[in-house]
Automatic annotation (TrEMBL):
GO biological process: pentose-phosphate shunt, non-oxidative branch
Binding residues annotated for substrate, in chain numbering: T36, G37, S38, T39, D92, G93, A94, D95, K106, G107, L108, G109, K133
Gene Ontology terms for molecular function: ribose-5-phosphate isomerase activity
Name the record gives this protein: Ribose-5-phosphate isomerase A
Family of this protein: Belongs to the ribose 5-phosphate isomerase family.
Residue intervals passing through the bilayer: none
Known catalytic reactions: aldehydo-D-ribose 5-phosphate = D-ribulose 5-phosphate
Amino acid sequence: MNTPATADELRAQRKQEAARHAASFVEPGMVVGLGTGSTSAFFIDELGRRWNREGLRFKGIPTSERSAQQARELGIELTDFSEQTRIDLAVDGADEVLRGRLTLIKGLGGALLREKIVAHAADRFVVIVDDKKLVDKLGTTAPVPIEVTPFGWECAAERLGRLGARAPKPRMDRNGQLYVTDGGNMIIDCHFGPIEDPLYLFTEIAKIVGVIESGMFLDDVSEVLVATEHGIDRLTATERRV
Ligand SMILES: O=C(CO)[C@H](O)[C@H](O)COP(=O)(O)O
């Protein structure tokens, strides 16, 4: 008799389903943005499978050293912005998605700056999540990760506190060391609680000197694929509201 799947296994299955669906959008010759995180890792795995079994050829632009390494190990050809600044399709995960909207929080994996740069360079930016990531208000389950310059981070943290972030401190890694992004910066994970007005908060955060980018994605996403027990729900830009 088969043991029933655990909640974690079910989530992983859903992430994989969303990732497979997104991988079917990749066509020969495309330049493809490769996201970061466990859902994106499924996407890259599926692209590796298509590369090796179907002979699909494209070029990947990774959003982190981690994703670059995974893609290289699968044999996927990589490129960067020195070769071209246009991406056909970028695919990435998210930490929270506002139910029914293309508004979300990303960056708990620490790659938010590169992720946003790649998303903005893409003609089509597809976000892949399982339904546990859906929330009625952003900030309910996830902090807003904010990438800041190491110099003067204390000033940025103080201003973020004034905006309502609870005890804003730089992120530490698993070993208790300061977390440093691929770009050499720091991340302050800001616990605001449920956010009533995402656009206001986004705008105020962006005004703080020393803030490089926030993990709030308000108007960047073309579509969200949500894997549910009934299959994939697809929310596209025609329904986009901020
Ligand atoms: O933004 C990210 C990394 O910076 C990830 O996409 C986000 O954290 C989701 O991760 P996962 O797919 O592991 O749930």
